[in-house]
Design goal:
The structure holds two protein chains of two kinds. Chain A is an alpha/beta fold. Chain A is built from eight helices and nine strands. In chain A, the strands form two sheets. Chain A has a six-stranded mixed beta sheet with strand order 5-6-7-3-8-9, with helices on both faces. Chain A is globular and about 70 Å long. Chain B is mainly α. Chain B is built from 13 helices and no strands. The longest helix of chain B is centred in the middle third of the chain and has 38 residues. Classes of the chains: A alpha/beta, B mainly alpha. Chains A and B meet through helix 2, strand 5 and helix 3 of A and helix 1 and helix 5 of B. Chain A: Keywords: ATP-binding, Nucleotide-binding, Transport.
């Protein structure tokens, strides 16, 4: 069974096309990376997949269910960080983790243990009693990822998870994602960092102008070159299609 | 996770956030300290031989009558508006900042549903405002008893204690509709703007003589802010209409958070 599904999803913001018949699936045990230029539709796709945006057309499914209305037992196996994390600035790191654990359905007595493990896992020990508002951007990102993963989800969505992290944080997140996938989780990650994507992903989906324009193999040293070649080819195809359409109408 | 367990979790989290909220802390102090001070202070000023001019005219209603009764009448009048303002600012923060900062988006796909989180926010707001109202009236009673003891008059205004508590609770309950405003506008300042607008509208409705059936005016008028005749015109149906604001708002907010999209 596919754990994360976008099926023929389209969405417009006014007259601007954000997603154009996008179909995407992530199977258990796999890390799929979504890459694309700014405005390609990555975050919109992830918002549709997490239920935060009702697409104009098409369906999204998480573990077989509508993401906007997940049953509690299914939601307890799902985690995501898309744009803002589940972090409240007025709470400490440990309090944020305890709150996240409870919101993910963990019993009250287990939250302290889970929070402590997550603090150690993400290297947040020195800040465990610090208010989240006092954290650096990188540590805040570590905390957000910890809040989304401390319940060991079987379906995970991370939007630009390493954008503010130092090299140590990047390694921690990479290890965490790989470990969850090896345990059977389906992971969808969006990123601009092609090097990072090459190390973490089993499959790379290239999104351009809201469309899936192809797949890239994660291996090799020329990922950036292959990415731009694919994007340019997509632009060229779009231009040809538009020209043919205009000629047909004329 | 059962619905009861989900609500317990959401209540615990929202109560923690309330305890850490600067808005709630400031509003609590302002209510519990300033309202009793205003209640005792305005009566003292009204009865001071130095009072004169427009101040004396404005405070004429407080210049006579039983001391403790007058203290609690002022408390009820101030509290009916102050509890609304405090509650309105708090729901603007509690609901509006989640939508402004984007954490509302992180509340999707959780074992605790968004509608349960919204319900918990409303219940925690009501419990906090009720606690503040009771504490404010208790501090006013204590201050009044001290003033009464100094002046040799016995404290016997227990019926007015009930009026002050009910007026405060009604005013605080009427803050809940602004949780819906915050959800719709997705803005803390927009919600505060709505609150200011409703207070201004209330003044206009009262000036035009239609306050008894206007929920935001009824508690203050019942507490005597518009004089004895206006207070006598407020009956149980008027107060029940004002009291209906909170449950109706809770139902609307819970539904709005259940259907929330594009966050």
């Amino acid at each position: 069974m596919t754990a994360l599904v976008l099926d023929d999803v389209s969405h417009n913001f006014g007259s601007r096309v954000a997603l154009d018949h996008l179909t995407l699936t992530v199977r258990p045990g796999r890390v799929t990376a979504l890459i694309g230029l700014n405005g390609a539709g990555k975050t919109t796709a992830l918002r549709a997949l997490t239920g935060r945006l009702r697409p104009t057309r098409g369906t999204a499914r998480i573990l077989g269910h509508n993401p906007a209305d997940l049953p509690g037992d299914v939601a307890a196996r799902f985690g995501h960080v898309v744009e803002s994390p589940l972090v409240y600035p007025e709470l400490t790191v440990t309090e944020n983790l305890c709150c996240a654990a409870r919101l993910h359905g963990q019993p009250g007595r287990a939250t302290a243990r889970g929070a402590s493990a997550a603090v150690g896992r993400m290297g947040l020990g020195p800040w465990r009693h610090a208010l989240a508002r006092t954290l650096s951007m990188g540590n805040r990102q570590r905390l957000g990822i910890a809040c989304a993963t401390l319940h060991r989800p079987t379906a995970l969505i991370l939007d630009e998870p390493t954008s503010a992290l130092d090299p140590q944080g990047v390694v921690l997140v990479r290890e965490l994602v790989r470990e969850l996938a090896d345990d059977g989780a389906a992971v969808l990650v969006s990123s601009h960092h092609l090097d990072e994507v090459a190390r973490i992903a089993d499959e790379i989906v290239v999104l351009h102008a809201g469309r899936d324009v192809g797949r890239l193999e994660p291996g090799g040293t020329d990922l950036e070159q292959r990415f731009f070649a694919m994007v340019l080819a997509a632009d060229s195809n779009s231009a040809k299609t538009r020209t043919a359409d205009m000629e047909y109408r004329a | 996770m059962t619905p009861a367990a989900a609500l317990r979790a959401a209540l615990a989290i929202e109560a923690l956030k309330l305890r850490r909220s600067a808005v709630a802390r400031i509003a609590s102090v302002l209510l519990v300290v300033l309202v009793p001070l205003a209640s005792v202070g305005m009566v003292a000023l009204a009865r001071s031989p130095q009072a004169g001019g427009p101040t004396a005219a404005k405070l004429a209603d407080y210049a006579t009558g039983d001391l403790a009764t007058t203290h609690l009448m002022v408390c009820a009048q101030v509290l009916s508006v102050a509890a609304l303002a405090a509650g309105g600012f708090f729901v603007a923060w509690s609901f509006g900042r989640e939508l402004e900062s984007g954490t509302a988006g992180a509340l999707f796909g959780l074992a605790v549903p968004r509608s349960t989180i919204a319900l918990a926010k409303c219940l925690v707001t009501l419990a906090w405002i009720a606690g503040c109202v009771v504490l404010t009236v208790a501090v006013t009673v204590a201050a009044s008893a001290v003033v009464a003891a100094v002046s040799g008059a016995p404290f016997a205004a227990w019926a007015d204690v009930r009026t002050a508590v009910v007026a405060g609770l009604l005013g605080g309950g009427l803050a809940l509709p602004f949780a819906w405003v915050a959800t719709v506008t997705r803005s803390q300042l927009g919600t505060v703007g709505g609150l200011v607008g409703v207070v201004a509208l209330t003044q206009m409705v009262v000036l035009l003589g239609g306050g008894s059936w206007f929920p935001y005016a009824a508690p203050s008028l019942w507490a005597g802010m518009g004089g004895a005749d206006a207070a006598a015109a407020i009956g149980l149906p008027n107060l029940l209409l004002a009291a209906a604001g909170a449950p109706l708002a809770i139902a609307a907010v819970v539904d709005a958070w259940r259907r929330l999209t594009n966050v």
